[in-house]
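Researcher: Structure prediction, please.
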Amino acid sequence: MTEEKIVKDDLIVAMEYSLTVDGEVIDSSEGREPLEFLQGKGNIIPGLEREMLGMKIGESKDVTVKPEDGYGIADETAFMEIPTNQFPENIPMEVGIELQVQNEEGQPAYARIEEIENNIALLNFNHPLAGKELLFAVKVIDIREASEEELAHGHVHHEGHEH
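Model: Predicted structure follows.
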């Protein structure tokens, strides 16, 4: 009798999912390949990764993830006011536009324009889902052993993966 595979650390899990936030489906694997991730390595948000432990192939589950186990609590200090004339001309000055900027350390950071008033743009550096409760509907499609390389790198490698 073969041992039934269950989701546990250091295994590659393929799952179908949909993500609902505020009553609206905002992401789904429908019409695409299942999402593959290396369990236990933080490839997916902590609250979902923890809830997937012990699931079997073919099993479905609804998982509610609180902000602190998802994309974090919204940080009220993660805002910056920047005069609109300091933006490159090719960036539309519209609420909701997402930008890639550099932080003080020169690392890429994402921000979105929260509001524009009197030629001042208010940038929000919080993740768009920070402070949100996330409702995932997940189904485990497959579970496989991770390769030594995948374990060493801490993530899934697909065919033709380049470094």
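Model: The chain has two domains: 11-71+131-153, 79-124.
Researcher: Thanks, that helps.
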